[in-house]
From TrEMBL:
One of its GO terms (molecular function) is ATP binding. Signal peptide: none annotated. Residues 3-238 form the ABC transporter domain. Coiled coil: none annotated. PROSITE patterns: ABC_TRANSPORTER_1, ABC_TRANSPORTER_2. It comes from the Bacteria. Pfam families: ABC_tran (PF00005). Keywords: ATP-binding, Nucleotide-binding, Translocase, Transport. Belongs to the ABC transporter superfamily. Macrolide exporter (TC 3.A.1.122) family. It comes from Marseilla massiliensis. This is ABC transporter ATP-binding protein. One of its GO terms (cellular component) is membrane protein complex.
Length: 240
C-alpha cells in the first residue's frame, strides 16, 4: 500500500477556525490511478497537499510507503518529495528565463543525469505533450495551456513513484485535456505509476480506475470505475 490515511483531521486556524478534513480514511495501492472528486471548497487541495507533504495535519495517521509522515523536518519532507513524488498543479511556476526544454530537464539536472540524456528525455516528454516545436521558447512566449503542459512534463520527467495532480487539466482546452489524461493513463498502465488526480470534472475522474468522492471534508462514495477504458470524456465531461 503506497498511501494509508486513517481518521485524518485538518483545521485551518485563524480568526474563525475552519475544520476542513473531518476524519478521512483512504488507502491507495501501488499502481492505482485514483481521482478525488468534489466541489470547490470541499477540501481536495488540502488533502492533496497533505499527501504531498506540503502541509501538516492535526490528528490521525498518514503513512506513505509504510512510513509514518508526522512532524517531519522540512529537510526530511523535501527528501521524501524529491525521491517519490511528482507534482502537477493547476498553476506551476515555470522559470521565466529558461526555455521550455530547460524547464523540463531541470529536475534531471538535480538528479545528476547527463546533459544529452536530460535533453533527450525532456524532448520526448515535450513531444508527447505536443510541444516539441516550442522547446526553445520561453514561458512568456507561450499560452497558458502550453505553459501548463511544460509544467506537467517537468513533473513527469523524473518518473516518480507517485504523481499527485491538483486539477491538472483545469487550465487546458478539452483536446489538450484529453491528451494529458491519456499521458497519465499511459504512465499508469505502462509504468505502473501510482497517480492521484484531484478534479471537480466528472470527465477527468472517469479516466481513472477509482473515484473517491469528497464532500465538506468527508469521504462519501468510493466508486470502482470499470468504464475507464471507454472513450475519454463522453457527453457532459470536459466539453462545456
Ligand atoms: P478544494 O481544493 O476542494 O477547492 P481546498 O482544500 O482548497 O478545497 O479548501 C477547503 C476549504 O479550506 C475552503 O473553504 C478554503 O477556503 C479553505 N482553505 C484552503 N486553504 C486555506 C488556508 N491556507 N487557510 C485557511 N483556509 C483555507
Ligand atoms: Mg483545490
Amino acid at each position: 500500500m503506497v498511501i494509508h490515511i486513517k481518521d485524518l483531521n485538518k483545521t485551518y486556524q485563524g480568526a474563525q477556525p475552519l475544520h476542513v478534513l473531518k476524519g478521512i480514511n483512504l488507502d491507495i495501492e501501488r499502481g492505482e490511478f485514483v481521482s478525488i472528486m468534489g466541489a470547490s471548497g470541499s477540501g481536495k487541495s488540502t488533502l492533496l497537499n497533505i499527501l504531498g507533504i506540503l502541509d501538516n495535519y492535526d490528528t490521525g495517521e498518514y503513512r506513505l510507503g509504510g512510513e509514518l509522515i508526522w512532524n517531519l523536518s522540512e529537510r526530511r519532507a523535501a527528501e521524501y518529495r524529491n525521491r517519490m513524488i511528482g507534482f502537477v498543479f493547476q498553476s506551476f511556476n515555470l522559470i521565466s528565463f529558461k526555455t521550455a526544454v530547460e524547464n523540463v530537464e531541470l529536475p534531471l539536472y538535480y538528479q545528476g543525469v547527463g546533459r544529452r540524456e536530460r535533453r533527450r528525455r525532456a524532448m520526448d516528454y515535450l513531444d508527447r505533450l505536443g510541444l516539441a516545436a516550442w522547446a526553445t521558447h520561453y514561458p512568456g512566449e507561450m499560452s497558458g495551456g502550453q505553459r501548463q503542459r511544460v509544467a506537467i512534463a517537468r513533473a513527469l520527467i523524473t518518473r516518480p513513484e507517485l504523481i499527485l495532480a491538483d486539477e491538472p487539466t483545469g487550465a487546458l482546452d478539452s483536446k489538450t485535456s484529453v491528451e494529458v489524461m491519456q499521458l497519465l493513463k499511459e504512465l499508469n498502465e505502462q509504468q505502473g505509476m501510482t497517480i492521484v488526480v484531484v478534479t471537480h470534472e466528472s470527465g477527468v475522474a472517469n479516466e481513472t480506475n477509482r473515484i473517491v468522492h469528497i464532500r465538506d471534508g468527508v469521504i462519501g462514495l468510493i466508486e470502482d470505475n470499470h468504464d475507464h477504458h471507454a472513450s475519454p470524456f463522453g457527453a457532459g465531461g470536459l466539453m462545456k
